[in-house]
Design a protein that fits this description.
By secondary structure, the chain is α+β, with helices and mostly antiparallel strands. It is about 20% helix and about 15% strand. The protein has two helices and four strands; from the N terminus they run αβαβββ. The protein starts with 16 loop residues before the first helix and ends with a strand.
C-alpha cells in the first residue's frame, strides 16, 4: 500500500491571512508561503507527527474549534518565555510520561495551538 510521506501543508480560512501568516512567522518561526520559485516554504524538521481525530465532545481544545494545531518544539520552556515576552498567553499543561511536555495557546484569530516537546529518543 502506498502511504503519504507527511504533511504537505495545512490550509484554513482567516479573516486577515497576511497578518495571521506574519504572526506565525514572527512568533513561531513558520516561514511565509513562497511567492516565487526562488523562495522556499517552511521546512519542518523530521520527527514524530500525530494524526489524531478527537471525540466531538472533547474538552482538550475549545468546543467552537474543529481543529488544533500541534507544533513540535526543541525547548518548551524557552518557547514559552519567548511568547510571554511578546505578550502572548500560554498555558503549561501536565507532562505526559514517555510522550513529552505540552502547552496551549491561541493565535490572534482564536485558533487553538499546542506546543509539544517530545521526550528525547
Amino acid at each position: 500500500m502506498e502511504k503519504v510521506l507527511g504533511f504537505g501543508g495545512f490550509f484554513f480560512r482567516s479573516g486577515d491571512p497576511q497578518s495571521l501568516a506574519k504572526w506565525y512567522n514572527d512568533h513561531l518561526g513558520i516561514d511565509l508561503v513562497p511567492t516565487d520559485a526562488e523562495s522556499l516554504p517552511w521546512m519542518a524538521e523530521g520527527g514524530p507527527t500525530v494524526f489524531a481525530p478527537f471525540a466531538a465532545d472533547t474538552d482538550y481544545f475549545p468546543a467552537d474549534k474543529s481543529f488544533m494545531l500541534n507544533f513540535r518544539v526543541a525547548d518548551l520552556e524557552a518557547m514559552m518565555r519567548q511568547l510571554d515576552q511578546a505578550g502572548i498567553a500560554v498555558k503549561r499543561l501536565d507532562d505526559m510520561p514517555g510522550i513529552g511536555k505540552f502547552a496551549h495557546l491561541s493565535d490572534p484569530e482564536g485558533n487553538a495551538i499546542e506546543l509539544w516537546e517530545p521526550v528525547a529518543p
